[in-house]
Predict the 3D structure of the following.
Amino acid sequence: MLVAISISPSGGPRDDSETGGVSASVAEAVRVIRESGLPNETNAMFTNIEGEWDEVMAVVKKAVFTVAETSPRVGLVLKADLRAGHDTGQLSAKVERVEQRLASDAPSSHAQ
C-alpha cells in the first residue's frame, strides 16, 4: 500500500510564534518514518510511505505519537492507495507511468 500523510501539531511550542512554523515537530515525524526503513519520500505537503498495511500503520502511529509528545493536539491527514497486484515499487512507478505518458507523442485517455 501507499499512504500520503500530513501531521500537523497545534497548541504546543512552535518554531516561530510569528509565522506559526511547525518544522521542528514535522522533522521529528519524518525522522520516525525514515528510521522505519520503509520506502518513503517527503515533499512540501506530505510524506509518502510504501509497505504492508500493518507496518505502514504502525509507522504512522509512531510518528503521530512522537509529535504528540510536544503538542497537546495533533491533526493527521492520511490518503491510502491499495492496489492488488502492485505490492512494491509503486512509490516511484506511479510517477514514472505519468512521466512516460507526458513524454509520449500520443495523448491517452487511460488514467493511471
User: Anything to note?
Assistant: Residues 53-68 form the longest helix (16 residues).
